[in-house]
């Protein structure tokens, strides 16, 4: 693996993703949260922002589905600000941050980052290859 395979994640974005995931985990029952990652597609990919998108899945406790209209709006806003949609994020409020069978079956954006957050403070990034997910190291970058 080369350094180009590393996801560069702004510290403030990491904190915002963890906060969003904790909000979903604190619901009764817990719910997966989701959104779009903004920044620069690489290599290396750099995430400098995140846009929350409603989870419209039928069973939000164990799966996510990005609201289609809100997702397109988020991507348009990212591109209007001269950024790139780097990928997507969602949480696993009651399990480890590894792709589930549902995550694998529903992934469609080949070459993009899929970041999974598990409260209280765990996250992992994967690139969807079309055939599956390849884990990416994460380098947290200070906002200074």
From TrEMBL:
Domain MPN: 7-144
Keywords carried by this UniProt record: Hydrolase, Metal-binding, Metalloprotease, Protease, Proteasome, Zinc
InterPro entries: JAB_dom_prok, JAMM/MPN+_dom, Metalloprotease_DSAMP, MPN, VirAsm_ModProt
Pfam family, one: Prok-JAB
GO biological process: proteolysis
GO molecular function per UniProt: metalloexopeptidase activity; zinc ion binding
Annotated Gene Ontology cellular component terms: proteasome complex
Listed NCBIfam families: desamp_Halo
PANTHER family: CYSO-CYSTEINE PEPTIDASE
Name by which UniProt lists this protein: M67 family peptidase
């Amino acid at each position: 693996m080369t350094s180009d395979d590393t996801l560069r994640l702004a510290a403030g974005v990491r904190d915002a993703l963890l906060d969003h995931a904790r909000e979903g985990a604190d619901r009764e029952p817990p719910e997966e949260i989701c959104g779009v990652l903004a920044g620069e597609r690489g290599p290396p990919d750099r995430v400098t922002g995140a846009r929350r998108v409603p989870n419209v899945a039928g069973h939000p406790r164990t799966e996510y589905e990005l609201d289609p209209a809100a997702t397109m709006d988020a991507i348009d806003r990212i591109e209007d600000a001269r950024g790139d949609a780097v990928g997507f994020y969602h949480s696993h409020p009651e399990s480890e941050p590894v792709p589930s069978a549902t995550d694998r079956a529903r992934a469609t954006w080949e070459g993009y980052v899929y970041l999974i957050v598990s409260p209280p403070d765990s996250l992992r990034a994967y690139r969807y290859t079309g055939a599956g997910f390849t884990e990416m190291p994460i380098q947290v970058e200070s906002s200074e």
